[in-house]
Design a protein that fits this description.
This protein is of the alpha/beta class and 459 residues long. It contains eleven helices and 18 strands. The protein folds into two domains: 292 residues, 3-Layer(aba) Sandwich (Aminopeptidase), CATH 3.40.630.10; 105 residues, 3-Layer(bba) Sandwich (Glucose Oxidase, domain 1). Helix 1 crosses helix 11, helix 2 packs across helix 11 and helix 9 packs across helix 11. Bound molecules: ligand BES and zinc ion.
Length: 459
């Protein structure tokens, strides 16, 4: 049996310094060392020109989830995987747009000019208002039944608040902001009519309720429009005779913000996924690799959440690492930070197998260990949530073009693409190369270099 040790190897011969991961075997077989010669088996084949061309094609048309633009992107990505001989699958999933036809909140015949939550139920209700504070579960009074709940924003999400009062039988929700800096109309869950008003209006109603009952009317008409978004999966199977049974996932999101070309966000990540697929199909491996591109990331990681939710537990149990690449080519990102500002974000702000490998790979190849930090905001979240070691590779702080119509190919740096994908590629290759023993999820820490936590402002 193999036993993996985490040790620091520093081979100093004159000016030469190499740091790597050593996989120790207890059966007396020779150690296998990660060094740049192994990295180069993969890295030397990376062609940033291919990536650039992918970004050029994808960013020519916005790829908002649920639009023709997304489908165009998906077809391209699938076509690329297919031309590599990979088994591909397209997973459709529903997303919803809401069109508000009527949104009325009235107290004593005065229109409060409120705004319905997207995802509010349609319906008209006239009832007494009941102040339920922040509508935290367990604090919502029973007498809200059949009434309209006056809810303060904060602490928990809008959806949770609506759920909590609906569970107590409320007939509607009037939500007001706890901060005075404007309203943010979040998503509800189609249970009861839900309308947002300003903080000043909410406070005034709270005061009025102290002096006696107040009646309100909510009248909401919202149309739900179903659309389809996609996840693309391409599976690369290992050699049948040498299969660890484990799975590594490499992902990016293919959708853009509405009307955004999304060259860096995240055609850059997709181009890296395709480039690594191109290289790994011709590289012997002992671990399954799944190349994934997600739709609807910009709507709250819906594609990756859908993908993870449909995985059988037996697959999740075999998944040892998820590498997410999102915004890895921004010429103006990263300020003066080393490695163009590349950083690895984890959901919990802890190191994991993925960050250990990333830091080792970058120090072998570029003499700098990529730092890590804590951030969600991309598709590594759902993988983390089911216990898979995951990290987001991104240049931080992000470029000024982020989510703007100026996120175009002109602001993409081939050097940055090359460097980021080299680090991710070399990291993933450490797991999937046939001469390293299988990783045990319970003992995942081949940390061989020191790398630092950074609390770097991202945007
Ligand atoms: N590529 C970004 C992620 C990002 C942007 C991370 C800036 C850090 C700094 C991603 O596509 C994005 O914009 N995500 C959304 C997530 C939200 C929809 C849940 C975001 O951060 O607003
Ligand atoms: Zn993104």
């Amino acid at each position: 049996m193999f036993r993996r040790k985490s040790i620091i190897t520093v081979l100093a011969t004159g000016m030469f310094l190499s740091t790597g991961v050593v996989y120790a075997q207890t059966n007396g077989a020779p150690n296998v060392q990660a060094d740049t010669a192994f990295d180069n088996k993969v890295i030397k084949k990376i062609n940033a020109e291919n990536m650039y061309n992918t970004i050029k094609y994808l960013s020519a048309v916005p790829r908002e989830a649920g639009t023709e633009g997304e489908v165009r992107g998906v077809e391209y990505i699938e076509g690329q995987f297919k031309s590599l001989g990979l088994e591909t699958r397209r997973f459709p999933f529903p997303i919803y747009d809401y069109k508000t036809n009527r949104e009325l909140a009235e107290v004593d015949g005065v229109d409060l000019k409120g705004h319905a939550f997207s995802g509010s139920a349609s319906g008209k209700v006239t009832a007494e208002l009941v102040n339920v504070g922040k509508a935290i579960a367990g604090t919502v009074p029973d007498d809200v039944k059949g009434k309209i709940a006056l809810v303060e924003r904060g602490e928990i999400t809008f959806v949770e608040k609506v759920k909590n009062v609906a569970a107590k039988g409320a007939a509607g929700v009037l939500m007001y902001n706890s901060s005075s800096n404007g309203n943010n109309f979040g998503q509800a869950n189609e249970e009861i009519p839900a309308v947002a008003i300003t903080q000043a209006q909410g406070k005034e109603l709270v005061d009025r309720l102290k002096n006696g009952p107040v009646e309100a009317t909510l009248d909401v008409d919202i149309e739900r429009i179903e659309k389809t978004s996609y996840v693309v999966e391409a599976k690369l199977k290992p050699n049948k005779n040498k299969d660890t049974g484990q799975i590594v996932t490499i992902g990016a999101h293919h959708d853009s913000v509405p009307n955004g070309p999304g060259a860096n966000d995240d055609a850059s990540g997709v181009s890296a996924v395709l480039e690594l697929a191109r290289i790994l199909v011709n590289t012997p491996i002992d671990t399954e690799v799944r190349f994934l591109t997600f739709g609807s990331e910009e709507r709250g990681m819906m594609g990756s959440s859908f993908y993870v939710s449909q995985l059988p537990q037996s697959d999740i149990d075999r998944m040892v690492a998820h590498f997410q690449m999102d915004m890895i080519g921004g010429a103006e990102a990263g300020e003066d930070h080393p490695l163009g500002g590349l950083i690895m974000y984890t959901i919990d702000g802890q190191k994991n197998l993925v960050t250990d490998l990333g830091a080792s790979a970058s120090s072998r190849m570029y003499d700098v260990a990529v730092p890590y930090g804590q951030l969600g905001r991309s598709d590594h979240q759902p993988f983390h949530d089911v216990g898979i070691p995951s990290a987001l590779f991104i240049h931080s702080p992000v470029e000024p073009q982020y989510h703007k119509p100026t996120d175009t190919i002109e602001h993409i740096s081939k050097e940055k693409l090359q460097q980021a994908v080299s680090i991710v590629g070399a990291s993933a290759y450490q797991i999937v190369r046939p001469d390293t023993p299988a990783l045990d999820r319970a003992h995942v820490s081949p940390a061989s270099v020191e790398y630092k936590f950074e609390d770097r402002p991202v945007d």
